[in-house]
Design brief:
There is one protein chain. The protein is an alpha+beta fold and 93 residues long. It has one domain: Ribosomal protein S6/Translation elongation factor EF1B (Alpha-Beta Plaits). The chain is 24% helix and 51% strand. It contains two helices and four strands. It has helices at 19-30, 69-78; strands at 2-10, 34-50, 53-65, 83-90. A hairpin with a 2-residue loop joins strand 2 and strand 3. The relative contact order is 0.35.
Length: 93
C-alpha cells in the first residue's frame, strides 16, 4: 500500500455540514483506503472561475491505498456533482 494525498475543491453552496466530505470518505473506504485523515482548509477564492463559482471549499485527505484503486477513484471523483476539482498525489516514503 502506498500513501496518497487527495486535495478536493467543493462547491461551497452545495456543501452542507458534512454531506460531500462524508461522500468522499465513503468512496475512499469503499475502495480499500485505510488511515483516512481529513483536514479542512476552509473556503478560499479560486484563481479562475470554475462552473460559475469564484470560491471553493478546500479539503485535504491523507490515506493509504493500493495503487490499482487510484484509477477507480479518479473515475468516481470525476463524475461527482459537488466536487469542482480534485488532485491525487502519491507521497514520498
Amino acid at each position: 500500500m502506498q500513501k496518497y494525498e487527495l486535495m478536493c475543491v467543493f462547491d461551497p453552496k452545495l456543501t452542507g455540514d458534512s454531506g460531500t466530505t462524508a461522500m468522499v470518505e465513503a468512496i475512499l473506504k469503499e475502495n480499500g483506503a485505510v488511515d483516512v485523515n481529513r483536514e479542512d482548509l476552509g473556503v478560499k477564492r479560486l484563481a479562475y472561475v470554475i462552473r460559475k463559482r469564484n470560491e471553493g471549499k478546500y479539503v485535504l485527505y491523507r490515506f493509504s491505498i493500493d495503487t490499482q484503486a487510484i484509477a477507480v477513484l479518479r473515475k468516481e471523483f470525476g463524475i461527482k456533482e459537488g466536487l469542482l476539482r480534485h488532485l491525487i498525489i502519491r507521497q514520498e516514503a
